[in-house]
Amino acid sequence: MRKKWEVALRRQGFTASESSVICSEHFKQDRTDCLTQRCFPVHLQRPEKGRTTSTSRKAEESLSVAPQDDPDASTSHSQPQPNDDHSYVLPASPTALKARLNEALARVESLERERKNAMAREKRAKTTARSLLGDLREKNLINEELKERLDFYSDLQIDFKAKQGHEYSKDHREWLCSVDGKPGLNKMMLDMLERRCQEDQATYGCVALMLDAMAIRK
């Protein structure tokens, strides 16, 4: 059985051992009992349709009663033909093998171009970053004070007004155009809460006031 497997696979240097396994794509777990009988899975076999014409039936009858004088010929015909349904099996035709080789070489060439383009983009990005850092150092814009300020705002959501930041970003933008969004305590909001509390003590009698570290500007 291992020898038939090696012949059907046609992989140079491959020798089936006790640890060799069958491709799980072609053999289901519940069909392991068939491996001792045939090497091709049941769910991939194609049923052969018999001929129904009178001429074909006569030909089959003549073949069934014909004597088998050459045992070697019958043995050669009974050997299973190798299957090319695996991607790692080399095709028997030189033309098909050359076509697969050309396809692989084209794929390698395409990946090589993508790698070179990616390296070029990375190089340009590094050059731009170095140039930007050099300009900031010349203008004395990189210092410890700026670093501390950026660290202070690093955990805040600066895209709050963007669509991906909040579901009602348009309503927030319209609201910000009508209120005072400057840094500091918003007295207008406190006055509004006080009026609401006087109108409806049960609903606005207990509110939570959240102080933000960054003002949301227009």
From TrEMBL:
What residue ranges carry the coiled-coil annotation? Answer: 101-128
- The transmembrane residues are none
Q: Which UniProt keywords apply?
A: Coiled coil
Polar residues composition-biased segments: 73-82
Q: By what name is this protein known?
A: Transposable element P transposase-like RNase H domain-containing protein
Report the Pfam families cross-referenced here.
TNP-like_RNaseH_N
Q: Which portions of the sequence form the region Disordered?
A: 46-90
Q: Which residues form the Transposable element P transposase-like RNase H domain?
A: 182-218
The organism's taxonomy opens as: Eukaryota, Metazoa, Chordata, Craniata, Vertebrata
Keyword Hydrolase among record annotations: no
Q: Where is the composition biased (Basic and acidic residues)?
A: 46-61
